[in-house]
Design goal:
The protein is mainly alpha-helical. About 45% of the residues lie in helices and about 0% in strands. The structure holds iron/sulfur cluster (SF4).
Amino acid sequence: MTSTTNNPAHHRHRQLGDHTWQADAVCQSTEYNPVDPETFFPEPDETAKIVTAKSLCGQCPVRRACLDAALEGGDTDGIRGGLTEEERGPLHEKIAQRLDYSRVNDTIDGRDIHLSKSERRAVVHAAYRHGVSEQRLAWLLKITEEHAQKLYRELRRALRNRDLNQPTTVTSPPEAGGERLVRDDFGTAA
Ligand code: SF4
Protein backbone atom coordinates (compact mmCIF):
# COMPACT_ATOMS: atom_id res chain seq x y z
CA MET A 1 0.00 0.00 0.00
CA THR A 2 1.29 3.43 -0.79
CA SER A 3 0.54 6.47 1.28
CA THR A 4 1.48 8.98 -1.37
CA THR A 5 -1.26 11.09 -2.88
CA ASN A 6 -2.32 12.27 -6.31
CA ASN A 7 -3.93 15.35 -4.91
CA PRO A 8 -2.58 18.26 -7.03
CA ALA A 9 -2.42 20.42 -3.90
CA HIS A 10 0.24 18.08 -2.63
CA HIS A 11 2.57 18.94 -5.51
CA ARG A 12 4.70 21.93 -4.77
CA HIS A 13 7.68 21.44 -6.99
CA ARG A 14 8.35 22.75 -10.46
CA GLN A 15 8.54 20.07 -13.14
CA LEU A 16 11.82 19.88 -15.02
CA GLY A 17 11.60 21.65 -18.34
CA ASP A 18 8.64 23.74 -17.23
CA HIS A 19 9.42 27.30 -18.23
CA THR A 20 5.82 28.55 -18.25
CA TRP A 21 6.55 30.67 -15.17
CA GLN A 22 8.76 32.92 -17.32
CA ALA A 23 5.66 34.38 -18.95
CA ASP A 24 4.87 36.10 -15.64
CA ALA A 25 8.42 37.30 -14.97
CA VAL A 26 8.61 41.01 -14.20
CA CYS A 27 11.96 41.15 -16.01
CA GLN A 28 10.42 40.04 -19.33
CA SER A 29 10.88 43.10 -21.48
CA THR A 30 7.79 44.14 -23.40
CA GLU A 31 6.73 47.15 -25.40
CA TYR A 32 4.97 48.57 -22.35
CA ASN A 33 7.50 47.37 -19.81
CA PRO A 34 10.99 47.74 -21.26
CA VAL A 35 13.64 46.13 -19.09
CA ASP A 36 17.35 46.17 -19.81
CA PRO A 37 18.55 42.57 -19.29
CA GLU A 38 21.97 43.94 -18.31
CA THR A 39 20.39 45.19 -15.10
CA PHE A 40 20.43 41.59 -13.89
CA PHE A 41 24.13 41.12 -14.58
CA PRO A 42 25.78 43.85 -12.52
CA GLU A 43 29.40 44.01 -11.53
CA PRO A 44 29.80 43.65 -7.76
CA ASP A 45 30.26 47.41 -7.32
CA GLU A 46 27.32 48.47 -9.52
CA THR A 47 25.07 49.16 -6.59
CA ALA A 48 22.43 51.10 -8.52
CA LYS A 49 21.92 48.19 -10.93
CA ILE A 50 21.71 45.73 -8.05
CA VAL A 51 19.10 47.85 -6.27
CA THR A 52 17.03 48.16 -9.46
CA ALA A 53 17.17 44.44 -10.19
CA LYS A 54 16.30 43.51 -6.62
CA SER A 55 13.41 45.93 -6.64
CA LEU A 56 12.00 44.28 -9.78
CA CYS A 57 12.47 40.83 -8.26
CA GLY A 58 10.69 42.04 -5.14
CA GLN A 59 7.53 42.62 -7.22
CA CYS A 60 7.86 39.45 -9.25
CA PRO A 61 5.13 36.80 -8.78
CA VAL A 62 7.40 33.99 -9.96
CA ARG A 63 10.35 34.79 -7.77
CA ARG A 64 10.35 31.39 -6.09
CA ALA A 65 10.18 29.47 -9.37
CA CYS A 66 12.95 31.67 -10.75
CA LEU A 67 15.21 30.97 -7.79
CA ASP A 68 14.45 27.23 -7.89
CA ALA A 69 15.18 27.08 -11.61
CA ALA A 70 18.50 28.87 -11.12
CA LEU A 71 19.55 26.61 -8.26
CA GLU A 72 18.41 23.41 -9.93
CA GLY A 73 19.96 24.36 -13.25
CA GLY A 74 23.26 25.41 -11.67
CA ASP A 75 22.77 28.91 -13.07
CA THR A 76 25.27 30.91 -11.04
CA ASP A 77 25.31 34.02 -13.24
CA GLY A 78 23.46 37.24 -12.59
CA ILE A 79 20.66 38.13 -10.22
CA ARG A 80 17.97 35.43 -9.96
CA GLY A 81 15.01 35.29 -7.64
CA GLY A 82 16.15 38.49 -5.97
CA LEU A 83 19.57 37.14 -5.03
CA THR A 84 22.95 38.15 -6.38
CA GLU A 85 25.54 35.62 -7.48
CA GLU A 86 27.33 36.01 -4.14
CA GLU A 87 24.10 35.55 -2.16
CA ARG A 88 23.15 32.44 -4.14
CA GLY A 89 26.55 30.79 -3.73
CA PRO A 90 25.82 29.01 -0.43
CA LEU A 91 22.40 27.91 -1.72
CA HIS A 92 23.98 26.25 -4.75
CA GLU A 93 26.17 24.26 -2.38
CA LYS A 94 23.27 23.42 -0.09
CA ILE A 95 21.01 22.09 -2.84
CA ALA A 96 23.47 19.31 -3.61
CA GLN A 97 23.01 18.06 -0.02
CA ARG A 98 19.21 18.40 -0.02
CA LEU A 99 17.04 15.51 1.15
CA ASP A 100 13.44 16.62 0.84
CA TYR A 101 10.96 13.76 1.18
CA SER A 102 8.16 15.75 -0.42
CA ARG A 103 10.27 15.62 -3.60
CA VAL A 104 10.68 11.90 -3.17
CA ASN A 105 6.91 11.51 -2.87
CA ASP A 106 6.25 13.73 -5.89
CA THR A 107 8.64 11.64 -7.96
CA ILE A 108 6.98 8.39 -6.87
CA ASP A 109 3.70 10.02 -7.96
CA GLY A 110 5.18 10.40 -11.44
CA ARG A 111 6.30 14.02 -11.46
CA ASP A 112 9.54 14.87 -13.23
CA ILE A 113 11.24 17.19 -10.77
CA HIS A 114 14.78 18.04 -9.82
CA LEU A 115 16.35 15.61 -7.36
CA SER A 116 19.63 15.72 -5.51
CA LYS A 117 21.70 12.54 -5.36
CA SER A 118 20.35 11.78 -1.89
CA GLU A 119 16.78 12.24 -3.11
CA ARG A 120 17.36 9.92 -6.06
CA ARG A 121 18.64 7.28 -3.65
CA ALA A 122 15.58 7.83 -1.47
CA VAL A 123 13.30 7.39 -4.50
CA VAL A 124 14.92 4.03 -5.26
CA HIS A 125 14.48 3.01 -1.63
CA ALA A 126 10.84 4.13 -1.46
CA ALA A 127 10.02 2.57 -4.84
CA TYR A 128 11.50 -0.72 -3.71
CA ARG A 129 9.54 -0.62 -0.45
CA HIS A 130 6.32 0.08 -2.34
CA GLY A 131 6.92 -2.72 -4.84
CA VAL A 132 7.37 -0.40 -7.81
CA SER A 133 8.51 -2.37 -10.86
CA GLU A 134 11.90 -1.85 -12.45
CA GLN A 135 10.21 -0.56 -15.60
CA ARG A 136 8.29 2.02 -13.63
CA LEU A 137 11.40 3.05 -11.67
CA ALA A 138 13.22 3.52 -14.97
CA TRP A 139 10.42 5.78 -16.17
CA LEU A 140 10.29 7.73 -12.90
CA LEU A 141 14.02 8.45 -12.89
CA LYS A 142 14.36 8.77 -16.69
CA ILE A 143 16.96 6.04 -16.81
CA THR A 144 17.24 2.77 -18.71
CA GLU A 145 15.61 -0.39 -17.44
CA GLU A 146 19.06 -1.95 -17.05
CA HIS A 147 20.10 0.93 -14.86
CA ALA A 148 16.95 0.54 -12.76
CA GLN A 149 17.65 -3.18 -12.38
CA LYS A 150 21.18 -2.33 -11.24
CA LEU A 151 19.89 0.19 -8.68
CA TYR A 152 17.49 -2.40 -7.22
CA ARG A 153 20.26 -5.02 -7.19
CA GLU A 154 22.56 -2.66 -5.30
CA LEU A 155 19.80 -1.80 -2.85
CA ARG A 156 18.96 -5.46 -2.23
CA ARG A 157 22.65 -6.09 -1.54
CA ALA A 158 22.86 -3.13 0.85
CA LEU A 159 19.72 -4.25 2.72
CA ARG A 160 21.02 -7.81 2.97
CA ASN A 161 24.38 -6.56 4.29
CA ARG A 162 22.62 -4.35 6.79
CA ASP A 163 20.55 -7.30 8.02
CA LEU A 164 23.65 -9.47 8.28
CA ASN A 165 25.33 -6.81 10.38
CA GLN A 166 22.40 -6.56 12.81
CA PRO A 167 23.42 -7.78 16.27
CA THR A 168 22.01 -11.27 16.75
CA THR A 169 22.68 -11.68 20.48
CA VAL A 170 19.94 -9.30 21.59
CA THR A 171 16.93 -11.12 22.99
CA SER A 172 13.74 -9.24 22.24
CA PRO A 173 11.12 -9.00 24.92
CA PRO A 174 8.06 -11.07 23.95
CA GLU A 175 5.85 -7.99 23.57
CA ALA A 176 8.10 -6.63 20.81
CA GLY A 177 6.90 -9.47 18.59
CA GLY A 178 10.19 -9.41 16.69
CA GLU A 179 8.79 -6.82 14.26
CA ARG A 180 11.36 -4.32 13.09
CA LEU A 181 10.20 -0.83 12.32
CA VAL A 182 11.57 0.88 9.27
CA ARG A 183 11.83 4.63 8.73
CA ASP A 184 11.28 4.47 5.02
CA ASP A 185 7.59 5.24 4.86
CA PHE A 186 8.06 8.40 2.88
CA GLY A 187 4.34 8.95 2.71
CA THR A 188 4.30 10.75 6.01
CA ALA A 189 7.49 12.68 5.62
CA ALA A 190 7.27 16.29 4.56
S1 SF4 B 1 12.60 36.98 -9.73
FE1 SF4 B 1 13.75 38.61 -10.71
S2 SF4 B 1 15.13 37.60 -12.15
FE2 SF4 B 1 13.55 36.13 -11.55
S3 SF4 B 1 11.98 36.27 -13.10
FE3 SF4 B 1 11.39 37.64 -11.48
S4 SF4 B 1 12.24 39.63 -11.99
FE4 SF4 B 1 13.26 38.11 -13.28
